[in-house]
Amino acid sequence: MGAKVDAHAMYLGERINTAAFEQHALSSVPLAIRGGASGIAVLFRYGVVVLIGLTASEEKEFLDRLRPRIGGLFDSVDEETATVEIAGDGEDQVPAGGPIQLRQLSPERLLVIADALAKSVVLAHDEREAAKVFEVIEPFAKELSDHGRTKRSRTEMMRLIGKALLVQHRVSGRVAITEKPDALWDRPDLERLYARLEDEYELRERVETLNRKLAVISETAATLADIIDTRRALRLELIVVLLIAFEVVIGVYQIAIGRGH
Predict the structure, then answer these.
(1) What single DSSP character describes residue 179?
(2) For 133, which of 1, 142, 198, 247 is 20 to 30 Å away at the CA?
(3) 119-130 pLDDT tens trace
(4) What are the pLDDT digits (tens) for 241-256?
(5) What is the top-level taxon of the source organism (predicted)?
(6) Which helix (H) or strand (E) holds 46?
């Protein structure tokens, strides 16, 4: 085996303003620039940076430069690391749990690896967010199952729906997890490498699982919101009935008083 480099993906925030780095670009989509003495940094506008071949001190220096350009900085950072090594002759390989083996450390190959790692860290973040929503919604569902009703407010339910839609938008909108990287348009011969990376990080399976969870969250929250609306409608109907009954009583009383005179 030949030389080895480490690839380090970090999901830092909701977006990265890449304009300041574009004049030094090695690649425009995704944006890749030189990093450290001999490494590269791949910047994804949806908030992920992948550093390849940088030392720990070089990573720190680069992140210090990048941080002011991150919008919606996260309190905790999701990370994914991989070791990439030159395997010489033969096909590019992605052994399960082992280093990624490449015929050569070409920029296009590194961009394909960066794309897979970036998608994996975004999924890890969204999976955790969905799990948090599940933890919140479970007591509602149990309350409904045990008592056939809930005391929770519609506002709480709408917050849950909002969280579910936000994560779903991130998966289907800004971060096209199931789409192939742009590098493959010019290098279709690297599709097999990407397919192996996609399998190793279970990208498609994780997206499908996440979407199913989000669907359950949205359906449950919508059902509970409907129940609250129904309960509110019943209360309004009861108030209307009571008002009508009150008017009838007043009318009967007035008629009775009139006859007495």
Answers:
(1) S
(2) 198
(3) 999 999 988 888
(4) 777 777 777 777 677 7
(5) Bacteria
(6) none
d(CA 41, CA 30): 10
Q: How far apart are CA 245 and CA 166, in angstroms?
A: 47
Under a CB-based contact definition with an 8 Å cutoff, are residues 111 and 30 in contact?
Answer: yes
| Under 8 Å between Cβ of 49 and 43 | yes
Sheet arrangement for strand 39-44: 31-35, 39-44, 48-52, 4-16, 70-86, 100-102
- Angle (nearest 5°) at CA 117 between 116 and 120: 90
pTM across the whole model: 0.81
Residue 57 CA neighbour count, 13 Å, CB half: 1
Strand, coil or helix: 85: strand
